[in-house]
Specification:
Layout (H helix, E strand, L loop, with lengths): L9 H7 L4 E6 L7 H13 L8 E4 L9 H10 L2 E7 L1 H10 L5 E6 L18 E5 L5 H12 L5 E6 L4 H17 L2 E6 L6 H10 L4 E4 L3 H5 L1 H10 L4 E3 L2 H5 L4 E5 L1 H16 L10 E2 L2 E6 L1 H7 L10 E3 L6
Parallel strand pairs: 1-2, 1-3, 3-4, 4-5, 5-11, 6-7, 6-8, 8-9, 9-10
Antiparallel strand pairs: 10-12, 12-13
Length: 318
């Protein structure tokens, strides 16, 4: 399907089309997460975008290639009218590949700090969407870990130095550590093969607790990571509730299913004629603070009841 003329509003084209419009799905992994993909599809339906009727979701499979740039090039070749992109590395690849196709970011860290947008209020360029990393979120994780375990003194921080959002999170966590009077150990992990060594180093350096940042690789390896934390008896705070579901102790972070459903409203706004440069980037509508009771009992610790609740951003933590 040919691209519309530049002077023709997208809304007019979309409302009068007889064909379907393609939505590109770009994630860190060739196979989309079933739950998150399902939430996005349901969100599309809620705003009148019906797969198989007026829209089609294009998924670059494993045969396309493993690099984010290869997958985004595939989507461009499939004439997608918008790209929904999750995670910072793949979103940066999409940004490098196109400055004209609107990009909706989801589950992306600090989009301003990583250069994806000029500002949250006025993104500029062709990118808008939802951000997961608020300036205070990384610091809040350390604060909550300290609140739940007041005696901790040395916290190992597992991060991927190739993820720009992780570096921003490290800076925020470092500032919080000074205020809380705890020492940090920086443990860099660039591949799954480095996980065991990182946990061994944490124990050897005397860590008494752990924080694991959000990264696509860590999410894919979440069961392995939570098992390592349990084996080394390190109480751990994670960035996503999915780690708690995989056996981790506790997590503070955005509610991904809510974010992916919300992303569909951005797609609708683009199809209705709004320009991404004028659509403010929004934070996650909900943050979760969760606890795995079985993991806590296995470690012989008791945590306050606040670790069992989900709350919306802006609500006070008791």
């Amino acid at each position: 399907m040919s691209q519309p003329e530049a002077h023709t509003p997208r809304e007019e084209i979309f409302m009068n089309q007889s064909d379907t419009w393609n939505i590109g799905w770009l994630s860190a992994n060739p196979s989309p997460d079933a739950v998150l993909f399902g939430e996005f599809r349901e969100g599309l339906r809620e705003v009148g975008l019906i797969e198989g009727e007026n829209v089609k979701i294009v998924l670059p499979g494993s045969e396309v290639g493993t690099s984010p740039f290869e997958r985004v090039q595939y989507l461009i070749g499939e004439d997608v009218r918008v790209i929904v992109s999750s995670a910072t590395p793949v979103s940066l690849a999409a940004q490098r590949a196109t400055s004209t196709i609107p990009i909706i970011i989801v589950a992306v860290g600090d989009p301003v700090g990583t250069g994806l947008v000029s500002s949250l209020a006025k993104p500029g360029g062709n990118i808008t969407g939802l951000a997961t990393l608020l300036p205070e979120s990384s610091a809040r994780r350390l604060e909550l870990l300290k609140r739940g375990l007041p005696t901790i003194a040395s916290v190992a921080v597992v991060l991927n130095p190739e993820n720009a959002a992780n570096e921003i999170g490290w800076d925020n966590t470092t500032a919080a550590a000074k205020d809380l009077g705890v020492q940090l150990q920086r443990l860099e992990v660039r591949s799954p093969e480095g996980l065991e060594g990182a946990f061994d180093a944490a124990v050897k350096q005397g860590a008494d607790s752990l924080i694991v940042f959000a990264d696509p690789m860590f999410i894919m390896q979440r069961r392995r990571i939570t098992t390592l934390a349990a084996t080394h008896r390190l109480p751990a705070m994670y960035a996503l509730a999915e780690f708690v579901e995989a056996g981790g102790l506790m997590a503070y972070g955005p509610c991904f299913p809510v974010m992916y459903r919300k992303a569909a409203t951005f797609v609708r706004r683009i199809f209705d004629g709004e320009e991404p440069q004028n659509i403010p980037v929004e934070p996650s509508p909900e943050f979760e603070l969760t606890l795995n009771r079985a993991a806590a009992e296995a470690l012989g610790i008791a945590l306050p009841p606040i670790f069992r609740f989900r709350f919306r951003r802006g609500e006070a933590i008791p």
